[in-house]
Structure formats: structure tokens, C-alpha cells
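Ticket #4471: structure export looks truncated?
Reporter: QA, pipeline team
Priority: medium

Steps to reproduce: submit the single chain below to the structure queue and open the exported record.
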Amino acid sequence: MDIHKPKPWHGWPEFAKEIGTIVIGVLIALGAEQAVEWLHHRAEVAEARRALNEEVAFDLASFDFSVAQTGCMTRRLDELTLWLKSQDSRRPLQIAAPLPTIPGIIFRTSVWRVASVAAVAQMPFEARVDYGKFYDAVANHDGVRLRQIELWRDVSRLLRAKTLNDEQRQRAADDLDQLRADNEGLAGRMRFLREYGAALKVEPSASARARFETDQAHWVQAFCKPLLPSGAAGKP
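Actual output as written to the record:
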């Protein structure tokens, strides 16, 4: 077997040529590796944004559905206010208890919570800020929604009492005032969510909205049904 011995360099030009060949080979290898890594990160970011946008579209549709119930909520609160005022009369108004459940869809945040830190970090700065604003607004509204549910339950418990003492009447009045304020503020919170969604170029999911209207039809019908007998609205 012949063994080819390396040829000796004849001067600095040949040495520089050999070193240059090695360096260029290493740079090409590193460049190819970085290109593959860049393509991987780009695909990861695109996949994360697609999943986040689907979640944002769902949440926007959920919020639209909640806003659509504000009219019914206003009418229920008006009836409950009349019921509370009638407690001072000889013939107080009677409302069947418990109150119907407030219709609504729970927001989705799981994609945002488990989104790859690396993928989010690779997004443009403006996109990271817009996603952060959107999900901060979702968290704020979720806190309001949970408060509404608890206040609604408290009013329902007070309705079951045969008579209300002064402390209970004040509590019911405070509950109704807070529920009204939260209900009236819903449209404003929706405006901010829509602005953040528009910045992300995401619209409410039409398919999710149609599904909500079908799945929640029974709850909406029960919630929008009058609590007081016909004609009771004009009574003191």
C-alpha cells in the first residue's frame, strides 16, 4: 500500500493558500449550520404565531358573544333594582330564584402560557408587545367575569330570603351597582381587545361565534327571559 506523504510547503504563498482553504471550509460549514438553525427558528416562530392567532380569534369571538348579552343583562338588573326597591312596600315583588346563569364562554390562554420562550423571543418586537397587551386585557376581563359570577350568586342567595334586613339590602344594592358598572364597561373593554387584535391582523373567528350561538342558545334564552311578571315593571 502506497502512503502519500503530505507535500512540504514551498514558501508562504502555498501555506497561506492551504490555511485559506481550511478556513473557507470551516466558514462554509458554520454558515450552513446557522442557515439550518435560522430556518428552524423561522418555522418555529411561524407555527407559534399561527397557533396564537387562532387562540386570539377564538377569544375575540368569545368577547363578541359576551357583549351581545349586555342588553339582556341591563334588563335583568333593572328588574332586580325594582325588586329591591319593592322590599319597602307592603307587597314586595317576587322573583323566582335561583337566577339564570350568565351566558359566556371561557377565554383560551393555554397557547400563550405554553408558547416556546425561544419562539416568542424571535418574534418582531411589535408583535411581542401586541400579544402581551391582548393577553393582559384578557386577564383583566377574566377577573371582571369571575367577579360578576360571584356577585350574581350573592344576589341569587339574597333572593331566597323571605325578608331582607338593612345589611342585606345594602349588600344587594352594592352588588347590583357593581354588576351594572361591569356590564356598562364591557363595550369599552371590547374596543381595546379589537384594537390589539387588529394590530395582530386577527379577526374574531366566525366559526367559533356560530358555534357559541348554537351551544349557548338555551342559556341565552333562559337569561333573557323576564324575571318579573308582565306589568310589574311599572310598579313602585
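Status: closed, not a bug. The export was complete when the record was re-opened. Leaving a note from the reviewer for reference: The chain has nine helices and no strands.
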